Amino acid sequence: MSEHPSEQALRAPRRLWTGWAGLLAQVERMTRRSDSEDLLHDAYVRMAARPERPDNEEAFLVRAAVNRARDSYRREKVRGPAGGEDALALLRDGAPLQDEALMAQARLRRVSEGIDRLPPRTREVFLLQRIDNLKYREIAERLDISQSAVEKHMARAMSFLGEWTKDW
Q1: CATH assignment of 98-164?
Q2: Cβ partners under 8 Å of residue 56, min gap 6
Q3: N or C end of the chain: smaller count of CB under 10 Å?
Q4: What residues does CATH 1.10.10.10 cover in the chain?
Q5: pLDDT digit string (tens) for the chain, length 168 residues
Q6: What is the pTM of this model?
Q7: Which element (helix H / strand E) includes 12?
Q8: Can you tell me the distance from the alpha carbon of 165 to that of 168, in angstroms, rounded to the nearest whole number?
Q9: Contact 91, 137 (CB under 8 A)
């Protein structure tokens, strides 16, 4: 005896529901995404909205979920994750404003001029510490001076540069 189509339609979702965990595990394994259940659910809703059932519902659901995951990955790669960001956040430029950049360049020139005005040994100690990131002990060894002398040169350089750039 043949089954009525509406009875088939009622039994198919029940069969899918019992196999949902297996389908979810397959989608998770194939996509490696944390939103696999959402992807599978969306695929199920799309399948249910179709006028005709696919021949192999499980294969349809997995393929549709994987395709949705690929689309999401591509979209996120271009636009970034859609974690509640508004459209304006995507347009914001993190770079400083032009006047801020010009002021920073002017301050940098002022500091550079101040460094050039330091006595040669003080400038050398200052640059070894600030640019080369050497410790006072390493500077003392390299220049064959005491660590106390390095500390005094650094204090002199910092005091001078502080005054030199005071109103900048």
Answers
A1: 1.10.10.10
A2: none
A3: N
A4: 98-164
A5: 454 444 444 445 555 567 788 888 888 888 888 888 888 888 888 888 888 888 888 888 888 888 988 888 888 888 766 555 555 666 677 788 888 889 999 999 999 999 999 999 999 999 999 999 999 999 999 999 999 999 999 999 999 999 999 887
A6: 0.46
A7: helix 5-18
A8: 5
A9: no
24/9 Cα distance (integer angstroms): 21
Burial of residue 87 (CB within 10 Å: 0-12, 13-18, 19+) is: exposed
Question: Cβ–Cβ contacts within 10 Å for residue 36, how many?
Answer: 21
CA distances from 167 to 91, 101, 116 (A): 35, 18, 19
C-alpha Rg value of the chain to the nearest Å: 34
Query: Residues 27, 40: contact at Cβ < 8 Å?
Result: yes
Residue 166 C-alpha from the chain's centroid: 37
CB 139 within 8 A of CB 125: yes
Q: State how far the Cα of 102 lies from the Cα of 3, in Å rounded to an integer.
A: 80
Q: Are 65 and 42 in contact (CB under 8 A)?
A: yes
Nearest to 8 by CA among 52, 40, 46, 39: 52
